[in-house]
Amino acid sequence: MLSRLPPERFTAGAVDRTSLQTSLIPMNSNRPAILMTLALLYLLSPYQTAGADQETQVQQQPTKPNILIIFTDDQGYGDLGCYGSKTNRTPRLDGLAKQGTLFTSFYSQTVCGPSRSALLTGRQPIRSGGWGMPADEVTFAELIRKTGYQTACVGKWDVSNRKAIVPRMPNAQGFDYYFGPLGANDVGVVKFHENNQPAGTSKEMGELITLYTDKSIDWLKEKRDPEKPFVLYLAHTMMHTIIDASERFKGNSQGGLYGDVVEEFDFETGRLLDCLDELGLTQDTLVIYTSDNGPWNQDKYTKRKKGHPDGSVFWGDSGPLRNGKGSCYEGGYRLPCIVRWPDKVPAGRRSDAIFATIDFLPTFASLAGFEAPTNRHIDGIDQTELLLGKRDSGRDFFYFHNAGVRQGDWKYLKPNAHFHGYAVEDDREKVDELYHLGDDLGEQNNLAKQHPEKVAELKELMQKLESKQGSKDPSAASKIR
Predict the structure, then answer these.
(1) How far apart are CA 140 and CA 365, in angstroms?
(2) 66-395: which CATH topology?
(3) Is 127 helix (H, G, I), strand (E, B) or coil?
(4) Within 13 Å of residue 132, how many CA atoms lie on the same side as its CB?
(5) Whole-number Cα distances in Å, 358 to 255, 267, 399
(6) Which DSSP category does 453 fall into?
(7) What would the pLDDT profile of 224-247 be if each residue is shown by its tens digit?
(8) 404-479 CATH fold
(9) pLDDT tens-place string over residues 255-268
C-alpha cells in the first residue's frame, strides 16, 4: 500500500513532485510498482491535461486561406462543360468542379462596373456606385490587408469611371499591386496601368488572357511575400465585346471564335492552378472561379456593333436561362461559380443554395479575421458554413438592380424593371411578373395573377432593400437580411 499524500501538497495548477517522492512510502510493494504509480500520477497531472487541451485548441483553429478570385467577363451560364455545354471543351474547369463545389444559383450583377463594385464592397450597386464607385467605399482588400494579407489585382478594374483617378484606383482601394486596364476594350484597345503609372496600350485582344495569367504567375513567384497569406483578384477582359483568341487556340474549337476563347480560358486557368501546385500553395488556397454578368447574346447589340474581327460575334450560352447580359432575367445575373479549397470545401458537390458576389466580403471577413464595416449597410452575408459544407442553405433572397427580387424559389419583377437597351425584349408586357424558379427556370410562366399575395410580399421586400434608410442604418439593414 501507499500512504496518502497530504492534502496541502496538492495545488490547483500543479503536482509537487518532491512531495510525491518523499510521501509515497512503500509498504508491501516493490520498486517497479512505485515507478508505475509515479508515472500514472504524472500523466494525470494538471500540467499534462492543460498541455493536451492547448494542443487541441491549436489544431482546431482554422487556417487563414490564401484567396484566388478568377473573374471572367460576359461569360454565359452554359459555356462550360460542367454546366452543360456540349460544344466547348473545358477539362480543367470541369476538373476544378470535381475538386470543389459547383454552385447553380450564383449571382453577380447584370453589367460590368456594377458587378465589380458589388464584389469589392459587399454592397449592391445602388449603394456602392458601379462604374462610379466613390473613393470612400471600403473594399475587402483594404480590410484584409490590415490582418497581414498581401493583395494584388490583375486585369480589368472598371470602377473609376474608366479614368486614372488615383484615389479610386486599385492601390488606393487596398491592393498592394495592380496591373491592367482601368476600363473595357469597347473600341478594340486596352490601356494598361501598373500600379498608378501608365504601362502601355495593346490592340492585340487575343493576347490578353495569356498576358493576365503571366502577370498573375509572375506576382505569385516573384513579387509575393511567401511569409504572408495573399489575395489575388484576377479580372479578365475577355469575353467582353471585341473578343479574340491567341493563334494557339484560334479555329480549334467547335464553337467558333467565342468557343476558342472559352477553351483558351480553360487552358490558362489550368496554367495558373498548376502554378499553385508548383509553389505548394494549393492546399491552403481558396479558389473562386466566376464571371461578372451573363453573355452578350442579343441580336440588337451584335447587329449594331461595328469593328469586330471576322467571326467574333460573341454569342455566349445562357444554357436554360432567359436572355443574357443587361437583362434582369436569370440569363443576365446567374453565373457559373466553382469554389475549391482542398479538404475544406466539399469535393464533387453541386449546390443550388443562393450565393452571390456581394457575399465575398463578409465571408472573407470570417475566414481571414477582419470585421465587416458597421457604418454602412452590407448587403452580403457570411457564407462560410455553406462553403465548408456545414449547411446546405444560402441567402434567403437576392435583389435585382431596379428590377425585382428573388426569395427562395419565387422571383418577382416589377412592370418597369430595368433592362439595358440591347437586352429589352420588344414583346415583353410591362406587368408584374412572378416566376417559380424551381419549376420554371426559363421564366416562361408568369404566375402573378394566380398569387397576388406573393407579389405583394416580394414587392414590399424589394422596396425595403431599395430604401435609403436601409442603406445607411445598420440596425435597419439587419432587419431585411
Answers:
(1) 8
(2) Alkaline Phosphatase, subunit A (3.40.720)
(3) helix
(4) 3
(5) 32, 28, 11
(6) H
(7) 999 999 999 999 998 888 888 999
(8) Arylsulfatase, C-terminal domain (3.30.1120)
(9) 988 899 999 999 99
